Amino acid sequence: MNGRSVETTFFWFIENYSYSWHKFGEYLRSPSFSAYDPENTSWWIALYPRGQRYVSRGYISLFLARNPTDEGQENVSVKFELSILAADGSIIHSETKKETFENNDTSGFEEFLPIDSFYKDILTVRCRLWKGDGKTQESAPICARNYIAIKNH
Fold first, then answer.
1. CA 109 to CA 124: how far, in whole Å?
2. Is there a contact between 127 and 9 (Cβ–Cβ < 8 Å)?
3. Measured between alpha carbons, how far is residue 144 from residues 106, 110, 137 in Å?
4. Which letter does DSSP use for residue 64 in this model?
5. Alpha carbon of 104 to those of 30, 79, 97: distances in Å?
6. pTM
7. What is the dihedral of CA 118, 119, 121, 125, to 10 degrees?
8. What's the CA gap between 148 and 146, in Å, rounded?
9. Which residue from 1, 72, 105, 142 could staple onto 40, CB 3.0 to 4.6 Å apart?
10. Residue limits of the MATH domain (predicted)?
């Protein structure tokens, strides 16, 4: 791989997002995804539609979490970028962070984006994950889709 880190890109599509019933402190959990680099690590995203804690009410809180049982190294230092994308793929908001994760650790942003910043029924979250400070080599994207059920009367 020419000494380059391989970047993992995960897209999470949440359909019927505007029907989310979650209260502050309650989250949506993405399906797990495996990273290309660091090897043998598994991750997921926690999205709090109405904020993680009382102080972040009015905001979407967004976090990257490492699965508790992956087979990667005990401590893994990575850079990650969490983004909310518009329907055309443009970035509505994006934040980047460098963090060292142990198994079951989470890191992210409590006040990621004001709740009223978008009103679409499909919310697209993108997570880019890589290690090191050098250039990265892109890999094929990983995609997952969740649906918020709507009850018809």
1. 17
2. yes
3. 20, 23, 22
4. E
5. 15, 17, 17
6. 0.87
7. 10
8. 7
9. 72
10. 7-142
